[in-house]
Design brief:
Blueprint: E1 4-9, E2 15-23, E3 26-31, H1 37-57, H2 59-62, H3 65-74, H4 82-89, H5 99-109, H6 115-135, H7 159-168, H8 171-183, H9 187-191, E4 198-199, E5 204-208, E6 215-219, H10 222-229, H11 242-256, H12 265-276, H13 281-288, H14 293-300, H15 319-333
Antiparallel strand pairs: 1-2, 2-3, 4-5, 5-6
Helix pairs in contact: 3-6, 5-6, 7-8, 8-10, 8-12, 12-13, 12-14
Length: 334
């Protein structure tokens, strides 16, 4: 039974053609968004044709990228970097999105960027969207070759650096640096925190992993508790945009005369500090939310750059110990 058109009148007396009817055992109804009957008939015919094709060929033949994105977001996944990707692909069918075409889209969207940026902001989210729909049996899975890039070692923050920034930064930056260093959460995880996630009495913070969706509860250290308690409660703890918080961060670091380190350096700092405090790797990884101890040790644990540590073989004091005392004194003087 073909779709039938009917008028639906608006409050101002105008009308728009709507359609309704059963196609391939599915009852459809909706607006054609036009008052022109010929145009409305063409819209209804196109909808009927598309639904018949989907019934005959299956969803794999008709799934569009916007529909795939909708499924992805409905599952609670992140929408980070998706605006530019959606604008690029528009209504392209997923079956027509080849691995080569997706790699080329990364070049088109970020012509001056390096391989790491193209991987992070195009390849990874696009592949995640398609493979999520593959798990729903809406399309085949896809594998996309990453761009090569020179991996840069992320320098970890030290306790002295964190303490100094907390002492000199504005309240929100103090709370932010202590949150990320004390719990090893990513910036995106700190940014989405609600006051309901923070239990001052139990001294815990509920953190949702932005990569896996898993939840964990991190202990709230005393300095962090005080910093969060001093933030206003009428909005989220870190309600500012990411760009605003980065600007605040950079301004406070520069004003204090410290070396500029990134948000993610706090996660590296947590891992390094825990291991140097002789916390075993399994416990340190668990406390910081790492499920893969191999990744934790390979990526986040940093060696101490002090050749004189071998003096410890004979029980003598190392130059590093003397340097730490001097560094702490310099921080106090600032």
């Amino acid at each position: 039974m073909p779709l039938k058109l009917f008028k639906r009148y608006q409050k101002d007396g105008s009308y728009v053609w709507h359609y309704r009817g059963a196609v391939a055992d599915d009852y459809l109804r909706g607006s054609t968004r036009t008052a022109n009957k010929k145009d409305a008939a063409r819209v209804a015919a196109a909808i009927e044709h598309e639904r018949l094709n989907r019934h005959l060929d299956g969803p794999q033949d008709s799934l569009t990228f916007p529909e795939a994105v909708a499924h992805y977001l409905k599952a609670g996944k992140s929408d980070k970097y998706l605006d530019k990707i959606e604008d690029h692909w528009k209504d392209t069918k997923v079956k027509d999105m080849t691995a080569g075409a997706i790699r080329q889209s990364a070049v088109d969207l970020y012509p001056d960027a390096g391989g790491a940026t193209r991987n992070r902001q195009v390849i990874t989210p696009t592949q995640a969207i398609i493979n999520h729909c593959a798990e729903l049996e809406l399309c085949p899975p896809i594998r996309i070759r990453r761009f090569k890039f020179d991996a840069k070692i992320k320098k970890p923050v030290s306790l002295e650096w964190v303490t100094a920034l907390a002492a000199n930064g504005r309240p929100v930056i103090k709370a932010l640096v202590l949150t990320m260093f004390s719990t090893a959460c990513r910036f995106s995880e700190a940014h989405r925190l609600e006051w309901a996630d923070i239990d001052f009495q139990g001294r815990t913070i509920k953190i949702q992993d932005t990569k896996t969706g898993n939840e964990r509860f991190a202990h709230m250290t005393q300095p962090l508790l005080v910093a969060l308690a001093n933030l206003p409660r009428d909005k989220k703890p870190f309600y500012w945009s990411e760009s605003q918080l980065r600007r605040f961060w950079d301004e406070d670091v520069k004003a204090a005369g410290f070396e500029r380190l990134t948000f993610h350096s706090c996660r590296h700092g947590f891992a390094t500090k825990m291991l140097r405090d002789k916390v075993d790797p399994k416990t340190a990884a668990s406390l910081g939310g790492w499920a893969d101890i191999g990744l934790f040790m390979k990526t986040y644990a940093h060696a101490m750059e002090d050749a004189t540590l071998t003096e410890g073989l004979f029980g003598t004091q190392t130059a590093r110990g003397e340097g730490q005392v001097k560094e702490k004194q310099q921080v106090r003087e600032k």
